[in-house]
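Sequence in, structure out.
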Amino acid sequence: MTAITQNLPRFVSDLGISIIGEKCYSSLVENLNVGDVDCLKYSLSKGLGIGIVVGGSVMKVPQLLLILRGRSARGLSLPAYVLETLAYAITAAYSYRNEFPFSTYGENLFLTIQNTIITLLIIYFPTPSLRNAQAIGPQLAIASAASVASAAALYTLPKDILSLLQMATLPLSLFSKLPQITQNSRAQSTGQLSAFAVVSQIVGCLARLFTTATEVGDLIVTAGFALALVLNLVLGAQMWMYWGNDQKEDFGKTQIGSLSEKEKEDWASERQGRVDVVVTPKSPVPRHTASPSGRKWARKVD
């Protein structure tokens, strides 16, 4: 078997070495040493990391489609998305500036871009509480300018200040989820919140705890993912508790002019034996009849 694994095509071996390194590739692939625990953990971490990055690139797409299809951002908290986007952007900038492997933070870059678009859509499709605040155009312009300015600032800030901002992502993660959790609890509904996005975030946080501990070992980043996992679990519990509440509200509303079959039967039984008298309404008689020229005709009395 090793005769095959040691003579794989060059592009396959180059790809494997670029992902898990020459040492682990030689141990696991060429020599089939499945007892190399360190390389197994490292390879698993790399595989999970790449999967998370790929999944993160489309994680919020269902949420985007829900908003666009319904032309509504009902149930989504604007402050929650602003803070969450800022936390993702800081983590992406901090990891990039510290030259962490892209597989350990790449999804934060994609989530920052997707969250920025969702934030702009929340402004474009405002809830009733935000609809009368200001014109939508200036709000979109301000939000777009703030996004560009934040990206430029995170790219140019010194590393020591960026480390402080990375520590600030812990309270940011907390405060980014609390408005959404509070809004869900108050409305007893999750509105347009995507179940796919919530479940994906829970799975992603679990995997990120493993990959960060294996490849990076940064306690600040690990603490951020741990807190995000707890808060996403709360959102997942709310999705389960309030699932179907919107449909119940819709079915509970009877449209004007529509009756159920039971109501039709009851109404027909009540009508038996009754005589309906229909009075045709008469048009009111005009007081004066005017000629086309506007003059009134009067009969001369002799």
